[in-house]
Design goal:
The complex is a heterodimer of chains A (136) and B (402). Chain A is α+β, with helices and mostly antiparallel strands. Chain A has 3 helices and 8 strands, in the order βαββαββββαβ. Chain B has helices spanning 5-13, 24-32, 34-40, 116-124, 295-301, 332-336, 355-370; strands spanning 19-21, 43-45, 48-51, 56-60, 74-77, 80-82, 90-94, 129-134, 145-150, 157-165, 172-174, 181-183, 186-188, 195-197, 216-217, 220-223, 226-233, 256-261, 270-275, 279-287, 289-291, 309-314, 328-331, 339-342, 345-351, 381-382. In chain B, α3 (34-40) packs across α5. Classes of the chains: A alpha+beta (136), B alpha+beta (402). At the A-B interface, loops of A face β3, β19, β25 and α7 of B.
Chain lengths: 136, 402
């Protein structure tokens, strides 16, 4: 069975210079799409990936990453909306490249779809009351 | 059928007034007809919740011992500079004020995470705010330095005073250029990537009384979660603009200046705003009740998003360069559909003012009136109307020769 998942990888300093993602392709035949990357030498690296492939191979690949020392997080946990601060104005709606914000047509309440979020972070400074928060 | 405000107030006192929101009245009038609706409905409540830059607050902090004259010196509230050109311990804080060390747009676009609007929000929330002042010292006000926590509950006066609120209509902002621009109308993506608007449309106060027949100086309103008053025409008040057949201005027109005791307001309705690449501001909740004095007044309140037209303006060139060019005109119904057509292209839309919060404000005001807690006021003077000659002029620059 084929799967497609969005995950956040945290690389400890010692792994930053190793070709981890290459192994995912070569050994587990996984297709990847980099949604966000910030890897700086001497520091921890962060990679947001969309991974596609066979479920079994995907699981093995994830297993490999964990054994290598990469910390894995589901993407949806990382960008959250502070409901107390959100005023449902809609300033985020057209800023989001994946359409994760949708207006409920009747009430015009802004709905946030975690599954569509790629954690690019564009909505964070675009939000006037600063209701969008990132937790990497 | 003509009613007076006194008669409506009597009904409010008896708990018999019929109050509906500017959204509800649209269907009521459609079902019952204008005449019957005007007889039955006493008050229509409106609301808007958006970023309103010309907002601010003034304070009297009380005299210290020994005394200090803040006037003519420098005073900061949470590092944001307040205006001190007033009497000894009076201060004015504008929503756009920034800390001296904020990098502004030095690294463009600046984030503007904290400014005057945020200080006002924190004060209203009951948080302690750090006041730091330096002064020059006089015989009667000898002190030169003051550092203290202040809290809204200890201030003699804390008054929200906004010189321009609740714009009657607003432009829709787009970007025709090749690069993203960061404006007070939000982030505008290149080549018509998006269109941002900012009005509650059919719920917005001045759209429901387009000729200011009931709204005037002295009108009691919902302001920042408490009550306030309209004190004057707002700055840039510009009533004489092209209008639709129903009298709705097709571009930015009237504005109101508002005032109210900050101590009875709430941080849910006064929220510090950070506008990427532009600055800090304050999001303000305003709601105005409209007494249904006649069938004509009722008709105005039945305005719906289809009837309201706004101009689409290029914020990469026409707006900054003060060019009058309008790309097209669109209705609020189109804006709220999620996309508009500009130069043959489908452009996705987004709102900067919160419609759900505007609905909530109109609902709260309705409840206050139904509960007999909020009586209507007769304006002491009308706002300048179409015939008043009041217009918005550009600056006439006259070079200074040396």
């Amino acid at each position: 069975m084929a799967v497609s998942k969005r995950i956040v990888l945290h690389f400890p300093r010692r792994l930053v210079e190793r070709p981890i993602i290459y192994r995912l392709v070569k050994d587990y035949d996984l297709e990847f799409n980099i949604l966000k990357a910030s890897i700086t030498p001497e520091e921890e690296g962060l990679l947001v990936l969309e991974l596609k492939g066979d479920q079994k191979e995907y699981d093995k690949g994830i297993d490999f990453l964990i054994k290598a020392g990469v910390k894995i997080q589901a993407l949806s946990q990382d960008i959250t909306r502070n409901e107390e601060r959100c005023t449902n104005c809609g300033a985020c709606v057209t800023v989001c490249p994946t359409g994760a914000f949708k207006l409920e047509p009747k009430t015009r309440i802004v709905l946030f779809d975690n599954d569509k979020c790629i954690a690019c972070g564009l909505c964070i400074p675009a939000c006037p009351p600063r209701a969008m928060e990132v937790h990497f | 059928m003509v009613k007076t405000i006194a008669e409506i107030n009597e009904k409010i006192r008896q708990g018999k007034a019929v109050v509906v929101t500017a959204e509800e009245i649209i269907d009521i009038a459609r079902e019952k007809g204008m005449k019957k609706a005007a007889q039955e409905v006493d008050v229509v409540t409106t609301g808007t919740f958006g970023i309103m830059c010309s907002s601010g607050a003034y304070f009297n902090i009380g005299h210290s011992k020994p005394r200090i004259k803040l006037g003519g010196g420098r005073t900061y509230l949470n590092d944001v500079q307040a205006y001190t050109g007033l009497g000894a311990v009076d201060l004015f804080l504008g929503a756009n004020a920034l800390p001296d060390d904020d990098p502004r747009n030095r690294i463009h676009p600046g984030e503007f995470n904290y400014g005057g609007g945020h200080v006002i929000e924190e004060l209203v929330a009951g948080k302690d705010v750090r006041l730091a002042a330096t002064a020059y010292g006089t015989d009667c006000y000898p002190r030169r330095k003051l550092e203290t926590w202040i809290n809204i509950k200890d201030l003699n006066q804390a008054v929200l005073f906004n010189v321009r609120n609740a714009y009657q209509n607003y432009t829709v902002a787009v970007n025709l250029s090749e690069k993203t621009i960061y404006t007070y109308m939000g982030i505008l993506k290149p080549k018509l990537g998006n269109a941002n608007y900012s009005s509650a449309g059919q719920l917005s106060p001045l759209f429901n009384d387009p000729y200011y027949k009931t709204i005037g100086i002295g009108t009691k309103i919902f302001l920042g979660g408490g009550t306030g008053f309209i004190t004057w025409q707002g700055t840039q008040h510009n009533p004489d603009v092209p209008r639709t057949e129903k009298g709705v201005p097709k571009t930015m027109a009237a504005t109101i200046a508002t005032i109210g005791d900050l101590k009875q307001m709430s941080p849910r309705w006064l929220i510090g705003a950070s506008i990427l690449g532009y600055g800090c501001s304050l999001t303000v909740g305003v709601g105005v009740p409209i007494p249904i004095l006649s069938e004509e007044i009722l008709q105005y309140t039945t305005v719906s998003d289809q009837d309201i037209i706004a101009p689409v303006v290029d914020y990469s060139d026409a707006f900054p360069q003060m060019k009058p060019d309008v790309l097209t005109e669109v209705s609020y119904a189109e804006l709220k559909s999620g996309k508009i057509k500009v130069k043959g292209k489908d452009v996705p839309t987004a709102s900067l003012s919160s419609y759900p919060r505007a609905v909530e404000i109109a609902g709260i005001l309705k409840e206050w009136i139904q509960a007999g807690k909020f009586l209507l006021t007769e304006p002491v003077e009308p706002l300048p109307g179409v015939e008043s000659g009041v217009t918005q002029k550009p600056l006439n620059e006259r070079p200074i020769e040396y």
